[in-house]
Amino acid sequence: MKQLSSKSPSHRRLSTFVDWIRTPGEREERIKAQADEVRRRLRGKAESDKLVIRSMPFSGSYEKGTGLRRHMHGDAEIEGQDVDIAIVVDPDSIPEDEDRGHLIERFLGYFRASYPDTEASATRSSVRVTFVGSKINFDLVPMLAVSGTDREQLLFRSNGERRRTSIQDHIEFVRRRNRRSNDLPGRVKFNECVRLVKWWRHYREGDAHSIEEVPSILIDLLCAKAFDQCGVAETYTETLGQWFTRMADLAHRKRRVAFDDFGPASARTDDDRQWALLDPVNPDNNVLPMAWNNLQITELADWVATARDQWSEVESFERTGEHEKSRKVLIELFGNPFRHHGEL
């Protein structure tokens, strides 16, 4: 079947929309300024407490180039990109008799002392902060540096679990695919497709039955696997049609998702959860939420399969010149914001 042209209306609409959903430059500047101030204050509190901070790097979608704009009205509420700041602590600065698993509580105390009028709470692995005036949210993630390297950290959970990770490798995992798609001719890029999938995810969460939230890392891994196997086509329409076809197969058949970016792909099968989506940095970590069972997996698989069929409809309408019908399906995929921000 002949490929769609980059001049096709659906591709041009999607190009316009993906430009709109990325985080605006002025908001990026506010995030950077706010983050620098948070870093400065927390470092001061930690140093006065004789705690040595090795580094405080960005992670999450901000650093990966997959963040979304904040959109809090209409029928598609998007909080905006997740802004994660890791706080990498030198383990030698913590007294041997102190429970290192209390880092989250310690930094929650530091933050509240620095910002007494700002909402902050502990999650299972971070301090979640909401700056109401600037409408910027942060997750501050305390972790320990692993001795002898700057590329490995130890992440603590509130339940006492410790997990090896690497901020740098997680960022490199996405950037590696960004570079590969950037080297290809044409408009379609990996990180921009991830943005579109994440927006679609948020829109579907509004009508969810059993799913409270689909973690961003789960979306990252599904998109990475689809990209590794399908690449990108000339148009967003065909690319996302191919990606959702692949993701629907992965979800419905509960195929193991693993990568060999930082070593051989894990063959582990000892996880008692029904679907394995393995962290490329630490294959012992299944990123599927612990609370998920077959109900949530099935609901996600149904979402993806429905989207696969919708993308097929968009392609079919484009090939027959029924461009208004393809636009209506795109609005079904992305919500009313597409009606206003996906114009030619």
Textual characterization of the structure:
- With 344 residues, this protein is an alpha+beta fold.
- It has 2 domains: 9-22 and 169-341; 25-165, Beta Polymerase, domain 2.
- Helices cover 47% and strands 11% of the residues.
- The chain has helices at 9-21, 25-48, 60-64, 103-114, 167-182, 190-205, 216-230, 236-252, 294-319, 323-334, 336-341; strands at 53-55, 58-59, 84-89, 119-122, 127-131, 136-145, 153-156, 162-165.
- Strands 1, 2, 3, 4, 5, 6, 7 and 8 form an 8-stranded mixed β-sheet that branches.
- The relative contact order is 0.14.
What tags apply to this protein structure?
344 residues; alpha+beta; Beta Polymerase, domain 2; 2 domains; 8-stranded mixed beta sheet; 8 strands; globular
SSE inventory with pairings:
Elements: H1 9-21, H2 25-48, E1 53-55, E2 58-59, H3 60-64, E3 84-89, H4 103-114, E4 119-122, E5 127-131, E6 136-145, E7 153-156, E8 162-165, H5 167-182, H6 190-205, H7 216-230, H8 236-252, H9 294-319, H10 323-334, H11 336-341
